C-alpha cells in the first residue's frame, strides 16, 4: 500500500499524460515492453498528422503516450509532424498535458496571471476498434518552447484514454531547465507544478514495474 500511495503522490497536480516522442515507434514500444514487462496498448492514428501512438497507464487517470511517425501515412500536409518526431534521433519525453476541471476557465485564469497557453482547438482520432475519440486542447504551437510547461486538454464526454490500459505506476517526475525560476511562475499560472533544478532542458521519469523501477527521459 505504501508503494502505491507514493506512486500516486508523485503525479503533478492535474496531470493527464506525458508525451514520449520517438523516431521509431515500433522499436520504442518493443524496448519499453522489454524493460518493464508491460506492453503498451495501441492508441490510434492521427489522420493527416502523420503520427500514431501507444499508451500505458501511469496509475490513476495519468498515462504515458508514446508517439512516433506512422509508416502508413506518407504525406504530412500542413507542415512537420507534431512533437518534433521528424527531427529527433532518440526517444525522450518532450512535453506533458494537464486536465483542469474547466478548460476554458483555466485558460482565462492563466492569461490573467500573465501566461497565455494559446488558443483551444478540437482534435480527434479513431481507436483501434473504430470508435471516435474527441478532445479539445490548447495549441502546442503557442506553448513554451522548452516543453516543460504543459498544454491543457479536455476530453469532454469521451471516455478517458487511460481506462483499461496496462499499468506502470509513476514513481517520480522531475525536470531540468537552464533557468528554473522562469518556468515556475508559468506552472503556477496553470495551477500545477513540477520539481525543477538547473541544467539542460529535459525530463526524468521513473515508472514502477514487476522488473523494478524503469527510468525514462
From TrEMBL:
All copies of the Glyoxalase-like domain together span 15-190
Q: Which Gene3D superfamilies match?
A: 2,3-Dihydroxybiphenyl 1,2-Dioxygenase, domain 1 (3.10.180.10)
Superkingdom of the organism of origin: Bacteria
Which InterPro entries does this UniProt record tie to the protein? Glyas_Bleomycin-R_OHBP_Dase, Glyoxalase-like_dom
Please name the PANTHER family in this protein's record.
Answer: BLL2707 PROTEIN, GLYOXALASE-LIKE DOMAIN-CONTAINING PROTEIN
- Under what name is this protein listed? Glyoxalase-like domain-containing protein
Amino acid at each position: 500500500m505504501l508503494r502505491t500511495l507514493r506512486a500516486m503522490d508523485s503525479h503533478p497536480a492535474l496531470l493527464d499524460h506525458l508525451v514520449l516522442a520517438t523516431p521509431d515507434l515500433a522499436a520504442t514500444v518493443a524496448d519499453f515492453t522489454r524493460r518493464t514487462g508491460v506492453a503498451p496498448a495501441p492508441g490510434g492514428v492521427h489522420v493527416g498528422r502523420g503520427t500514431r501512438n501507444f499508451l500505458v497507464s501511469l496509475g490513476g487517470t495519468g498515462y504515458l503516450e508514446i508517439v512516433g511517425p506512422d509508416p502508413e501515412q506518407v504525406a504530412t500536409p500542413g507542415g512537420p509532424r507534431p512533437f518534433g518526431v521528424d527531427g529527433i534521433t532518440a526517444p525522450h519525453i518532450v512535453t506533458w498535458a494537464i486536465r483542469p476541471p474547466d478548460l476554458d476557465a483555466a485558460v482565462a485564469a492563466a492569461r490573467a496571471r500573465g501566461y497565455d497557453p494559446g488558443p483551444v482547438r478540437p482534435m480527434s482520432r479513431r481507436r483501434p476498434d473504430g470508435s471516435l475519440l474527441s478532445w479539445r486542447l490548447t495549441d502546442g504551437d503557442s506553448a513554451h518552447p522548452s516543453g516543460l510547461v504543459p498544454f491543457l486538454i479536455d476530453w469532454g464526454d469521451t471516455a478517458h484514454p487511460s481506462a483499461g490500459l496496462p499499468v506502470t505506476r509513476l514513481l517520480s517526475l522531475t525536470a531540468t531547465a537552464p533557468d528554473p525560476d522562469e518556468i515556475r511562475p508559468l506552472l503556477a499560472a496553470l495551477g500545477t507544478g513540477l520539481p525543477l533544478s538547473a541544467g539542460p532542458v529535459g525530463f526524468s521519469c521513473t515508472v514502477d514495474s514487476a522488473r523494478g523501477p524503469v527510468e525514462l527521459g
